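We store chain and fold; example below:
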Amino acid sequence: MTLMATLFLLVFVTELISWIGQSVLLEFVFALYLRLFYSSTAARQRKLKSEILLNKKELLQTSAQDQFAKWAKLRRSVDKGLADLEKLNSELAAARTSFSLKFNSALWIMTTGLQFVIGWWYRKTAVFYLPPGWFGPLTWWLAFPFAPAGSVSCGMWQMACKRVIKVGERVAKEVLLAPSGGGPPESVPSEEQGKEKAGARAKGE
C-alpha cells in the first residue's frame, strides 16, 4: 500500500509541475533565491537603475554649450553607472544560469528520476494483486515486465496513474473554463431581419 501511494504521489507531483509549468516555478523559486542570497546585489541594481534614469533626465535638460562642465560631469556619471550596471547584470545573469541548471536537475531527479529508480528497485515487486480471473489473458500484461503473475507491476501502475491524472486534469479544465450560465446566448436580430418581420406583419394585416 505504501508503494502504491508513493508511486501515485510521484506521478501526481510530476504532472502537477508539468501543468503549472517548469519555467513558472523557476521564476518563483529564483525570486526567493535572490531575496535570500543576492538581496544586496539586487538592491544595488535597483538603486543604480534609478540613479541612471535621474542622471539621464538631468543630462537631457542640461545644455552642452552653456553648461559644459555640468554636462560633462553628468555624462561621466551616466557612463560609469551603465558600466557598473552591466557588471551587476552579468553577475545576476551568471547566478540565474547556475541556479536554473541546478533547479532543473534537482526537479528531474526528485520526480522523473525517482520514478525510474523506484520502478527499477521494485521491478519484481507487486504493487497489488488482482482478483483471479478478472482480466483473463491481460493479467500477464499488467504484471509486465518482472512482477509476479496476477499482480500489477510498478511500471503499469505508473502508466495507469498518469492516465487517470491526465483525464482528471482535462475534466477539471473543462469544468473551470466552461462559460457560466444556462444555455448559449440568444442571437440579437439584425436590422434587416427586423424590417422583414415588420413587412410580413403588415401584409398579414
